[in-house]
What does this fold into?
Amino acid sequence: MRIRGKFRASFTSGHSRGYHGCPMMRARPHVSLSVLAVLLFVLAMPVRAANDPALFPLADVQPGMKGVTYTIFQGDQVEKVDLEVIGILHNAIGPKQDVILVRLLGDKVQQTGVVAGMSGSPVYFDGKLAGALALKLGTFTKEAIGGVTPIANMMEIENAPVAPAPKNPGLASTSAAGGVMDGGALAGSFASHLGAARVHLPEEFAQRVAAGSGQFLVPIETPLVSAGLYPETLARFGKDFAAWGMAAMAGGTTAPSPQDAQLKPGDMVGIDLIRGDLSLSSGCTVTVAQDSRVLACGHPLFGFGAVEMPLSRAHVVMTLASAAASTKIITTGGTIGTLTQDRQSAVMGTLGAGPPMIPVDLALSTPDGEKKFHFEVIESPQLAPVLVAVATYNGMMDSPTYGQGTSVQFDGTIVIKGHTPVRLESLFASTDEATPAGLSVATAVQSAFARIYSNPYEVPQIESVDVRVAALQDRRSAIIDSAWMEKSEVRPGETVGVKVLLRPYRGAPFIQELPVTIPEQSARGTLQLIISDADFLNRNVPSLAASQGQLPGLEELIRVLNRERHNDRLYATLVQSTPTIFIEDKEMPNAPTSTINVLDQRQNPGNARVLWQSTEGEWSVAMHQVIAGQRTLTITVK
It folds into this structure.
């Protein structure tokens, strides 16, 4: 059997170079003492899987066959684990996507079962590579039952398309379909992807392994190890990690070594998601490492298709045995290459330089002083929004000030190559609920990233992110209690004073006055004056932000984002029941009927949109506290 593609020179079908059936281990009639001594020395060397084995075809796999797999339980020592074939599950995870069902044998696996991080452990029969351990059966099982992805299916990844070059300079990761996803759809996408990977265990196999009905083979969890991640951060974002099929736990980093890139089957590699003052990496076992290419996992990491993620060398500190879910606790070293493919049957990467990452600088200001953190996150439309949120939230947890009923002033900048920077600005006040203000900041950053990446115009290249957060000692929030005007009948061009009664969180109520000038072009009749916070306006009053799909491009979207209202201001908005036309990034209130008729008669109005309400004017005043509520006043224009 031969495999087409880039690994072809690494595999032969003429003879075996593995440990079972290895030519040098066959008995010869006459062996000199010197040759015997050399042979004993070789056999005493640490067991390690062959780096260029022959292949064992799936058609030759039979129930009852004995084989081995290679993995690490501690340190960098690759160990042999015996196994036995239970049977073949044909078309288990798709057309011609078969799974070899095996039982792992030995004292260690009796204690640990199938361990998170074993994904990709190479499986051999008669010294020939048959595939990689990739699936496990259930929880609290008494036997270590696993599923093996056949090597032929794994090697098909070589024919997968590479990431297409974006229209703008630079390279950003794309999904398997070549598109982008918004942040709100992240968790659901991960969950549905992993759910589809479950393999139902037929009744005949369930009886053999003493499994109950309804049991499934699922992808072996991938350890998601972190250094510098607070328990509070893990508690807040743990569900996101679990939806990715990853077991989040404490880990660490280690100093890079010149030997990091010297990989062999059974070694572990890390896929770095965040690096710097906080690190977050997942880990898989290497199935094949030949020349500058690496094949690992035996199942998808995220299923994103063509990707660019940093590869690092991973080291196993220990294997934690658990009746619920055993896992490898790992550390990651220096960058050794780039993960380029994340597909259904395996992941593949190349050794060498790592891909560019997005630098994130976070400055925290508290009464006790200022702290600065620096991170790098992978440039991925699917992951970057939530990863920046994790880094931001975790940095804020470094100071207890942000959890003591304070307010948080937040501002920042997202620099996009070839475009105007996106400005971030908001104020968040603590509430009586358990949700800290720091989570609101992290969510705001995540939302901004998601809106940029989900734009329908071009793939953005994020050059840097700068976030500045200041903790304010008091809880700064106020509710709009009532509002009134000096008079309700006005003339065009006239300025009237609007008074608003606000009740702060603590302290006496106070009155804030806003001068409102009636526009000269206002028609006679009744108008509505809405006194409100920013959130009410964003949800109920037409704006360009709601029509971003009709904008000419990303630059216009950034301008709209930079003009959005802020929640620490008090707004007065004059509205009347006349049409507004939105054309690209322009707003035309009080549109004449003739114009609307022309648009209605056109089969394709292009980037035009009509709303049956117009904003005559909008005024605001900075309050330096979070405003909530709304009141509506009626004005008659004479």
